[in-house]
């Protein structure tokens, strides 16, 4: 373990969080960890000084949970990606662009998210939605094993046979609660050639397009993932298709299709639109039934950007108690984003009566009143007992974490 100390200049360059709201939360020290043993040493160091401790992967947590005034575990030196017999071992410091690049060399990939600098562990522990998800499930649905350093410094490899309850909890409850993951083993899938599509209309067509999208995208064939975004000047349906692309109910827009892209090229082509910019304010909720037209009209008056992500497909074919991810019956995820927090809250309140009350653990919302139900649904009590077993002293904690704040 290498201790960097509170050298803020270096910190700015090395490990600034992706969310600007948390730039001011400075760690007392940063432990650069190259191995699981380094992590155990860092945990002992924090314990001996009564410092709060938190791991950081890609630093993208919307609620700043990988920021601390105590000891920050920087896992970026552990970013190796290796493949053997269709199984991918990925170090905790890897970000999605490195994962896709590393696996593509072997003709493989995993279903995972779009932001190229999102960390693989943070994404996986909260579920992992992405363009291959309707075909292959969440990122965590492809997880076969994880190496974890527990609060007492013990290193365990968990899977369906070894520490199965811990392995269950790591698949979807959200990061930073049970231990520090140092590597993940995935069942990879073939890296496909695919079609990237973008269909755009002026904003005054947004209500019609949302209406058509919500009837179609969650039930589309598994090979098609079509998201919808409404911005200040336009509405856009975009995504990927593993089969020949048919624009279906959207043929009257301005259609931009690129066929036969390699998977990394397709990912790059979609992030060219700027999907990895630093988001200022965001609230979201899952939706199980179509939004009424009057609600759509009201949402469009809120002044926020609206992002609709389809669920269904393989996401929803996994039983709710098979992993900790409790949101297996949802049709889509609706996100409200923008620089004005009041506008974001107003927009969320308009949709809320028609939403399911469930919230994606990877899009945490500190203002939720009943967060145990929102994030964990019927899996909450089982998660509490696993937390009690694996982190009885609540070393890994934050507001809304399973052990509660200390
Ligand atoms: C621009 C952007 C694009 C996104 N795109 C997608 C997307 O396409 N699909 C999707 O599903 N989500 C997406 N997300 C949400 C993303 O999944 C979450 O923000 C996720 O938690 C980020 O993980 P991270 O490692 O980058 O963040 P971090 O802030 O580093 O970590 C998130 C949480 O996990 C914990 N953690 C990190 N590393 C470890 C570890 N090794 N062991 C234990 N706990 C750990 C942290 O302590 C923190 O609590 C996006 C977010 C942003 C900001």
From TrEMBL:
Keywords of this entry: FAD, Flavoprotein, Oxidoreductase
In which domain of life is the source organism classified? Answer: Bacteria
One Pfam family linked to the record = FAD_binding_4
The cofactors it requires, by name, are:
FAD
- InterPro entries in alphabetical order: BBE (IPR012951), FAD-bd_PCMH (IPR016166), FAD-bd_PCMH-like_sf (IPR036318), FAD-bd_PCMH_sub1 (IPR016167), FAD-bd_PCMH_sub2 (IPR016169), FAD-linked_Oxidoreductase (IPR050416), Oxid_FAD_bind_N (IPR006094), Oxy_OxRdtase_FAD_BS (IPR006093)
Tell me which residues make up the FAD-binding PCMH-type domain: 22-191
Q: Which family does it belong to?
A: Belongs to the oxygen-dependent FAD-linked oxidoreductase family.
In Swiss-Prot or TrEMBL terms, this protein is called FAD/FMN-containing dehydrogenase
Q: Give the organism the record lists.
A: Kribbella aluminosa
């Amino acid at each position: 373990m290498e201790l960097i100390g509170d050298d803020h200049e270096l910190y700015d360059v090395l490990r600034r969080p992706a969310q600007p709201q948390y730039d001011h939360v400075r760690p007392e020290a940063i432990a650069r960890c190259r191995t699981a043993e380094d992590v155990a040493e860092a945990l002992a160091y924090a314990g001996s000084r009564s410092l709060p401790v938190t791991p950081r992967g890609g630093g993208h947590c919307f609620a700043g949970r990988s920021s601390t005034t105590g000891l920050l575990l920087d896992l970026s030196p552990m970013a190796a990606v290796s493949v053997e017999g269709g199984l991918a071992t990925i170090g905790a410091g890897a970000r999605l662009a490195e994962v896709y690049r590393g696996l593509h060399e072997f003709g493989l990939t995993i279903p995972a998210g779009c932001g190229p600098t999102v960390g693989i562990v943070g994404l996986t522990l909260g579920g992992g939605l992405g363009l291959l998800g309707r075909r292959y499930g969440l990122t965590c649905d492809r997880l076969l094993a994880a190496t974890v350093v527990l609060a007492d410094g013990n290193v365990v490899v968990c899977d369906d046979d070894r520490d199965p309850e811990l392995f269950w909890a790591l698949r979807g409850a959200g990061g930073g609660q049970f231990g520090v993951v140092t590597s993940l083993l995935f069942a990879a899938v073939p890296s496909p050639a695919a079609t990237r599509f973008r269909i755009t209309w002026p904003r005054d067509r947004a209500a019609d397009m949302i209406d058509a999208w919500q009837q179609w995208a969650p039930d589309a064939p598994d090979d098609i993932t079509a998201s919808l975004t409404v911005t200040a000047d336009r509405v856009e349906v975009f995504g990927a298709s593993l089969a020949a692309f048919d624009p279906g109910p959207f043929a009257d827009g301005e259609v931009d299709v690129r066929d036969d892209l390699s998977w990394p090229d397709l990912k790059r082509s979609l992030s060219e639109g700027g999907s990895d910019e630093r988001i200022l304010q965001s609230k979201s909720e899952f939706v199980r039934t179509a939004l009424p037209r009057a609600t759509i009209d009201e949402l469009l008056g809120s002044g926020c950007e609206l992002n609709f992500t389809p669920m269904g497909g393989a996401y929803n074919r996994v039983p709710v108690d098979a992993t900790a991810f409790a949101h297996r019956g949802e049709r889509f995820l609706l996100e409200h984003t923008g620089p004005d927090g009041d506008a974001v809250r107003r927009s969320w309140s308009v949709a809320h009566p028609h939403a399911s009350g469930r919230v994606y653990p990877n899009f945490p919302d500190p203002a939720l009143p009943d967060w145990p139900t929102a994030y964990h649904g019927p899996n909450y009590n089982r998660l509490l007992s696993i937390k009690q077993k694996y982190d009885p002293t609540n070393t890994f904690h934050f507001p809304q974490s399973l052990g509660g704040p200390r």
